[in-house]
Amino acid sequence: MQQAIEEGYILDVLKNYTSYDTAFRIAESSKRHLQAVDLVDETEATKKLMRWVSLHPTNIVQKVQIIVEHYRANVRHLLDGHAKAMVVTSSREHAVRYKEAIDAYIAKNGYRIATLVAFSGTLTAEQVPGAHLAGVEPPYSEANLNTGLRGRSLPTAFASDDFQLLIVANKYQTGFDQPLLSAMYVDKRLSGVTAVQTLSRLNRTYPAAGKDTTYVLDFVNDPQEILDSFLPYFRDAQLTEVTDVDKLHDIRAKLDAAGVYTDAEVEAFTEAYLASAKHGAHTAPLKAAADRFNGRYEDAIATDNRADLDELELFRKDVGTFVRLYDFLSQIVNYHDTSLEKRSLYLRLLQPRLTGRRDTDPIDFSTVELTHIKQARAAELDLDLASGEATPLKPVDAAGSGASRDPRMVRLAEVLARINELFADEDFTPAEQQSWVEGLVTVLSADPVIRTQAAANTRAQFMASPDLGTAVSEAVLTNTANHGRMADLYFERAELQLELRQLLGELVHEAVARTR
Length: 516
Fold this sequence. Notes:
Layout: H1 2-6, E1 17-28, H2 42-55, H3 57-75, H4 78-81, E2 84-89, H5 92-109, E3 115-118, H6 142-145, H7 154-159, E4 165-168, E5 181-187, H8 192-199, E6 215-218, H9 223-230, H10 247-257, H11 263-274, H12 279-302, H13 306-329, H14 338-350, E7 368-381, H15 407-422, H16 430-446, H17 448-456, H18 459-463, H19 466-478, H20 484-492, H21 494-515
Parallel strand pairs: 1-6, 2-4, 2-5, 3-4, 5-6
Antiparallel strand pairs: 1-7
Helix pairs in contact: 3-5, 8-9, 10-13, 11-12, 11-14, 12-13, 13-14, 15-21, 16-21, 19-21
């Protein structure tokens, strides 16, 4: 990248980088009934609330004003008046909302600016509630939102003088070559190679019009993270090893064998998705698999089954690995296998549904008011690529090779590490510590009262048993012959008694659970 910039083949897109911070305040509506009490999952509610704020008309309108006025003041006159800009959004709904808001803003102000929007598939009225796009009836798509194409493809129309702003949701973030593109307005989380590929849409030179300036206005990302994403490719991009293209088949087989989705569901999804059928037709196969995964996940949590949790977490990680690996390898390898492409489409949309929580009723934000919101310019920066150090890029040769670990061995290693910390001032070898801990677990697991309680209760309930503390102390006493000094320290230190009870209790509960 450095050589290409220095020799004038591409531009440095981080030279004019401006970041914005969004500050907002929310409150419960005065219309809310005070006696009503809503209990929601905190993580899920926070995620949905942040999305609600990001889609709030006031938030989008503020950003639209910044975008349009920045384009008019700083970009429109470049390249002999032909310069164009891209608005990068985080979802198809965001893209439609931005299209609606930008068109309304430029119409209100009488600006001679026209927009195009790019995304795949269609969106129903239920997916974009309350949208009002002049002369357009749902379902929304590129075909009915982009008027004035006159039979031209979207890239061809954007290259003409008829359109200045291109609003995208995933589409055209990679592989889009338009030298007139001079500014990018980012309202989507970007990192790693995705950040490089997206912002690099700006780096095309245009010597005929003297293109030497680009602008990035970023509403969500940390400038340092963006800089760190570019650094590995700046001076001397190196791979530590090579990529095995057959790994994709290995991951596919591994995912298929997990039993989260079926071949029939993948086929039903693909047929509906590619046919642009109604929203429910292609979401039903996704929901079936997501419900299956999330149900297993909640059951594993309820029964404290660490082995199942590890397997499910590994499946979720492998889904992301497959999608990323296919995106990369399919550009350079023709696999002659449509099943891989089908799974890529299916798993890409399944991934965000693998939440580990069963579907719950939608959270009602009708009583929530956005009382204040402000977009504040955080910094205008020249992100200096020459100032940083890059690490070699990791290959994808180990992709999907992970395996769930034996939960007993993992937990035992954690306990021994903690025991080592507790006895840091004493001269006990790791072997002595392990022998002591395993001896105590054996004694406790053989205790009929402790064993019955561990088998009949969740881990949290078992840990609260008053019998556990007594049983641990008795086990330590019976094990003094070989570990007298450790037993002495146990009875001398109250904090050691409390922590050892916790650590041993967890190991015993797991040991009993495995034998049920």
